[in-house]
Amino acid sequence: MPRRGRCQRRDPHPAQGLQRLRRARRPHEEASREKTTTLIDYANAQAKRGEPITLDELSELVDESQPKAFYDYIRNQDYGLAAEIPPDKRTLQQFKRFTGRATGVSISFDSHLLGNSIEYDEERERLIIKQIPGQLKDQIKQRGQ
User: Fold this and answer.
1) Average pLDDT of span 50-71
2) Which long-range contacts (C-beta less than 8 Å, at least 24 apart) are formed by 60-64?
3) pLDDT at 111
4) Are 83 and 74 in contact (CB under 8 A)?
5) pLDDT reported for residue 9
């Protein structure tokens, strides 16, 4: 019996394979969501206190295992950023969610989903939603019947 190479192996249940792949991506999405939330929470807390966001503290939150790595990278790249940045609530909100409206359409989603379960095709000006909420999927199916 000939041995099957890795590229010849086929999943007998492709839908289940896709579900396994989606579940495997979720920890990455969850980690990204948690990191974004932590950074936004810090910046919002600084805004409420009327205090600046410091690159030192931001760097510690970005990577706890290497708390100075982000700070050193920013300083060495000469981006012209000051060591302290005044927080702007409007800008902070943009990091957390994307929202938009057009005639008959309203879209809102967490920013960490972009590039994961939501893709933006700039050439075609399209959003591709990979994981449609169950309730929306049910409504669309009912409409098609």
Assistant:
1) 91
2) 61/35, 62/35
3) 81
4) no
5) 46
Find the DSSP H helices in the chain. Answer: 14-49, 55-62, 69-77, 89-96, 134-144
Q: Which residues contact 78 (CB under 8 A, 6 or more apart)?
A: none
* Residue 102 β-bridge partners: 105
Confidence (pLDDT) at 129: 92
Distance (Å, whole) CA 76 – CA 13:
50
What distance in Å separates the CA atoms of residue 114 and residue 133, rounded to the nearest whole number?
16
List the one residue out of 141, 135, 136 whose CA is nearest residue 105. 136
The two three-digit tokens of residue 50, written as one number:
């009327």
Distance CA 32, CA 34 (A): 5
* Measured distance CA(69)–CA(99) in Å, rounded: 32
| CA nearest neighbour of 87 among 57, 60, 113 | 57
71, with CB counted inside 10 A (0-12, 13-18, 19+), is buried
* pLDDT of 52 higher than 90: yes
